Amino acid sequence: MADPLKKLFRITALPLILSFLMAEACGTALPEETDWGKIIESYVDDDHQVDYLKLSRLNMALAETGQLTDKLFHYTQAGSDGILVQWNRAKEAGELLSDTYWSMGHIALAQRMAFEATVMDERDLNPEMTRRLIETNLIYGAYPVAGKYIEALGKDRAWRRVAESYRVFLYNDAAVDSDLVLGPRKRCVPKTDFISMVRGIDEDLKDIIRTNPGYNKAIEYLGAIYLLNCEMDKFKEMVDEFYGTEALPELHGSFAEAACMLSEIHRGYWKTVGVPAETYKRYTDFKARLGNGLSQDKYKDTFWYYIMRVNSQ
Amino acid sequence: MRKVTSLFATIALTAAACVPKVEEPASDAPEAAIFPDYKEVTVPPNIAPLNFSFEDIDTKGVAVLENSGERLTIRSRKGEFHIPENDWRRLTAAGPETKVTLAEYSGRKLVTLKPFHIHVSKDTIDPYVAYRLIAPGYETWNKMGLYQRCLENFSQTPIMTNDKTDRNCMNCHSFNTRDPGTMMFHMRAQNGGTYVWKKGKIEKLNTKTPQTISALVYPYWHPSGDYIAFSVNDIAQVFHSTDPNRIEVYDYKSDVVVYDVNNKQVSTSPMLTDTTRMETFPSFSPDGKTLYFCSSPLPEMPQGYKDVRYSICSIPFDPGSFSFGDKVDTVYNAVRSGKDATFPRVSPDGRFLLFSETAYGCFAIWHKDSQLRMIDLEDGTFRDLDGINGPDADSYHSWSGNSRWIIWASRRIDGLYSRLFIAHIDKDGNTSKPFLLPQESIRHDKDLMRSYNVPEFISGPVLFDQDKMADVAKNDHGINVTFK
User: Fold this and answer.
1) Are residue B254 and residue B205 in the same domain, yes or no?
2) Which of A39, A250, B42, B273 keeps 20 to 30 A from B73, CA to CA?
3) By C-alpha distance, which of B161, B170, B253, B186 is closest to B481?
4) B72 in contact with A, Cβ within 8 Å
5) Is residue B6 part of a domain?
């Protein structure tokens, strides 16, 4: 090659080749999976101002780490909008709702919101939500369109490996069933169809729990929504239906606290649902301090404190 | 000059010599697996080239196309066979049948596959089709537009896109007997209204009246151009938990009305506004004397959504006096069939009525079992059209001006994103194998994340000024339609 040509090659082609190789190298790493612990650690609780998007992400992290029932009221809560944010047709709300429904095991609405978020995205591709569309379509056995989304996601170099990792599930029900992410959620798809959200999210969640009682997050969310909305009758109905089953073998954390409170109307209820005596004792202490006008600060992490705060507002 | 010509001839000969020879196929040659499936389809003589690829895009090969002494040999390029437009024209003009012989590489050896044919009809097709491109979505929309595609080549141009109108929703485009100069469509949300483009003028209409359920919805032009039939609907959309249909669209109530384009009035008949029934999806017969519509008893909604069964009915219409007859005929009886029929469309020659049939409900596009069926209006017999229906949601359909072609939206490729298919129907109602609307690149239909919606043949391009339309949409208060 003549010298001027070599020089031209160095100036033009070499940087292009290097950038291609670097991009390829980046594409070999999987995008980071959600670090739920980091979300919980970095959450800043502010009891004066609630950021529903952040609160919803926190509650999702608690659910994903199996702590929603126990630690729900360790943070300032503000009704069930802190779990399911209002759908305002914005991309961000769509993404968050898709994640929440996915966490709940509500596959239909996880898919719906993923689709809404991709439509509202100004980018050609929303990789996270396209991934959700792949996963939900694999769960439904809608393999041709899942394949289409795999192709689309694979065009993003950073996501190529992720996209390719889903190919093994195409036209392979057994692989979907045995996958640790897809399988449990596939078992959440109700056997009998219902129209989502027409009866309310709680009835949808009950169907999911009945379909897959081993998927504990669904009942954690259901109970949390009832407690955050102070819907005690509905909470009791839930406990009455599911206590002692695989879905709710025992009551602990905020669920046990709520059962103590229900004992005000339903005498001895806490005993019938196996609430430990020390929890009930703590509840009676709380009531005594309340009656004497003493500080309740040491109960700030309880459902009782939450409901007192809600009632005083 | 002679030297230059000679040079070109030498280059051409050298290039031709570089194309490997395709041997005659063995008697047990394997079938060619191609996308789109253009094997043994029937096409109009004026259609764009039917570019295709091997189903496995990584396969390389050679295609030989022959028709009545004309011959073209092409290599695959990035897995696709692109047929030059002039060569395609030459081939399709040569005779009624183009034989395609494909050979694929197995290592360095070319293996000839079983040839197939592309049948060329004498019946031409309207040169344009108009459609909406939308995400096959649930509730939200973002980028959306009405487009037109020249069927004789690959040119697609926008009719109206919502980037000019605050990203609003636009839908229900409709033409008077395929005339691109007489059309209407709706805009929803911002700049809401019905927009009528006729004789070079744009009108914005506010179409909700105190007497009607809603603003005007599903349209169909009267062939005179003086009227447009519409439904008025209270529509809901919900989401299934398990059902593969994903989405259910239904009405709480609906009626049919007719809009007088010149006097800006709507009128109806008690037989089109029965409160115990839902009437919707109107269309006129080609002579304009009959108004077809769908009608279902109104069950308790929403829980009764699976009990909705639309029959196809008809009522006489007198355009001279803008009046309706007093007797309703049932053309398709849902009680007898146990099924449900929507979107009646009569062929321009008046012989056949084409419709979508599903198990229940009003929105065939979201019903995987939706299929096209046809009634022969001469003798009332039904045609199942098995040869053109696919495994997934065949719905919204339009007739060509000569009644020999239909175009419709089908979800058969991936189960969600509608693509346009075209089929020939002869004068006796016999169908030929349908073909996917050809695209310049095979990747187009696989990559496109939007659905083709409401395809309508048109005889030429729509030429209104988008900016002028946007100006009317944003700045015109609109004419209030009244009820007669």
Assistant:
1) yes
2) B42
3) B186
4) no
5) no
User: Touching check for B33 and chain A: CB below 8 Å?
Assistant: no
pLDDT in tens, A23-61: 444 444 455 578 999 999 999 998 888 999 999 999 999
Domain with residue B331: its CATH number is 2.120.10.30
Q: Clarify whether residues B231 and B261 are in a common domain.
A: yes
CA-to-CA separations, A238 to A72, A198, A247, B294, in angstroms, rounded: 18, 19, 11, 44
Same domain, B194 and B90: no
Q: What is the pTM of this model?
A: 0.92
Q: Which domain holds residue B341?
A: 128-475
Whether B150 and B174 map to the same domain: the answer is yes
Total domains in the fold of chain B = 2
Look at B242 and A198 and tell me if their CB atoms are within 8 Å. Answer: no
Q: Are B228 and B318 within one domain?
A: yes
- Say yes or no: A147 contacts chain B, CB-CB below 8 A: yes
Question: What CATH number should be reported for the domain holding residue B37?
Answer: 2.60.40
Structural domain includes residue B18 = no
Give residue-wise pLDDT tens across range B315-334. 999 999 999 999 999 999 99
Q: What residues in A contact B412, CB-CB < 8 Å?
A: none
Answer yes or no: do A145 and B416 touch at CB < 8 A.
yes
Q: Is B135 in the A-facing interface, judged by CB distances under 8 Å? A: yes
Q: Report ipTM for this prediction.
A: 0.91
